[in-house]
Amino acid sequence: MTGTNANGIEIDRDFAAPPAAVFAAWTTPEHFARWFGGKDVQVPLDSLDFIAEPGRAWTAQMVLPDGHTIDWAGEFIEVVPDERLVFTLTDRPAEPVQAQIVIQLTAIPGGTRMHFTQETPGFSPEQQAGVLAGWQSFIDELERIATVNTPSGSYAIKASGSIKFMGAEEVEFISRSPLSLLQQNQSTRRHADRSTRSDSPESPRAAPTLPQHRAR
What we know:
Order of helices and strands: EHHEEEEEHEH
Distance between the termini: 29 Å
Number of domains: 1
Largest sheet: 7 strands, antiparallel
CATH superfamily: START domain
Structural class: alpha+beta
Strand order of the largest sheet: 2-3-4-5-6-1-7
CATH architecture: 2-Layer Sandwich
CATH class: Alpha Beta
Helix content: 25-40%
């Protein structure tokens, strides 16, 4: 199911794994590093400060296929094991605005239903579609990790999902895949940097496309 609203994006996904396994995929550093960014992006463990405790800050660094890096930061707000996780996220750690992520897990016959929301203030529908596509790819990898150690037959449901994305105003890009979105957004930010600071060298940092970023 899809729809629009001014608040953010939503993803509902069913996993053939118990809530504890899905929660662990979100909160265990070794698991988080394997899926955050999707299959084409690396998150080195030595760059990851990720302990899921309320009030605790977290940081991570993505390494893109072209070698550029993206720094992420946020804070854990609410942690209810196997049920609920709330945290903030930004790809611009020096700026005060951060998006809030809420993950709610519910046990269902044969597995777990996850309800995911992210705020997207000031995003256009096209930008939200890009964020949505990125998170869907991330969650595909998360699903693989959550189910890899689940005994065959114990959670035999077919994973399925319904999605809803919501709107605002202002746009510069549309995504087709997380990696293409990263590359498109990188090009957008570089163009903007050259326009506003033509006498400055091009930054080596790739612009993120994914969960929180929007083009300026």
